[in-house]
Amino acid sequence: MLQQVQNSALVLEQALSKVRWRILPLIVLLYFIAYLDRNNVAFAKDQMSADLGFSAQVFGLGAGLFFIGYTLFEIPSNAGMYRFGARRWIARILIPWGLLAMGMAFVTGTASFYTVRFLLGFAEAGFFPAVVFYFTLWFPARQRAAMLGIFVLSQPVANMLGAPLSGLILEMHGIGGLDGWQWLYLIEGLPAVILGVLTPFLLTDRPSEAKWLTAEEKQVLQTAIDHDDTVITSNREHSFLSTLKDPAALAYSFLNFGMVLGIYGLGFWLPTIVDEMGHFSDFHRGLIVAVPYLVASCFIIWWSRRADRTGKRAAHVAVSLALAAIGLLGAGYTLTINPVLALALLSLAAVGIFTAIGPMLSMPASLFKGAAAAAGIGLVNAIGNVGGFVSPFVVGWLTDTTGSTKAGLIFLSASLAITAFVTFVYAGRRPEGNTSLVRTAEKRKEMI
Q: Is 49 exposed, middle or buried (0-12, 13-18, 19+ CB in 10 A)?
């Protein structure tokens, strides 16, 4: 019996190793491109605002409108992904989003800026929750925080590499009769179109369809996934529509909202925050902006794996968001006094924000299975990404009103602190937030 268990564990690890190497590199690359396309507006801000006469509030609203389009089509998009499969649906998302990202180069004023940003969000809607749901088909629940951590690593890496890259592209001003910000959108939008054409040939929808897994590996992997779905989700296989009213799904939606406030508040306004430290060229500013993301990328996978190993995901999220709140608050008070200390505090904030994402999203991803999982993950991401609209707009309004980003950083810090506390209190008492509760229950059953 012991030998059989050991053999199954070995086969499972072999299967998971194949899955990781086959799926994760492409998924990480796709999200790298997605994050680059949604955030490059932050680097184009100064040139666009000067050319088109945008105030900080106009820019913040336009940046945030992406998330209104994203939110409105998020749940319907996830339904389409569940119906047609990840391969085709992700390709359907990639191609129009790439074309619209390139279309940002042809914005001529406030109305077209608002329109294209809204449509870009509409086109990209469903990509992130589609990937989270896709992971539920390939990885057991107890390993999802770690896998999501690898996926989420794309965010700081995109900003880390995208910052100096965007700075260089912005210096192409005048080439071909185009401004630097126009080249930025054209060059960084094109990869999404190319990858959209290739994705249907590179992804596999489910383990049962993977020709690169043996029959035994498919069986052992599916058994492990089904086991975790049973003990953690308690077989919460609701209908797609009924899941949208589930109290737990709604609770995680608002927790995600609080976290997203910090993600995009930092992402969209970090270049502007760096401007308050001194005067830099576009390229040198990009190098400074890259520092917090470089620091954050060093901790994401370690923290996500630790959350899986201990089972205390809610506690890990709470600690991360509390650190982010401290970092943003401290940066708000040191920006104009000690730029080096402010950069260190911004790096602490980035570490906190990005290490929270994997453990946070692994919790709702473990709540449901089947169509209910597609609906629940879509709902969590849809409501959460409203924070992507609120955060840039509120920070922009506070910046215009006060003349600095300090008030905006205080707002973001308070939001993250509240989210940290509520996550610890609510999710820490639930099996998906503290899987040690599940392990304890299983041991009791074995003793009986």
A: middle
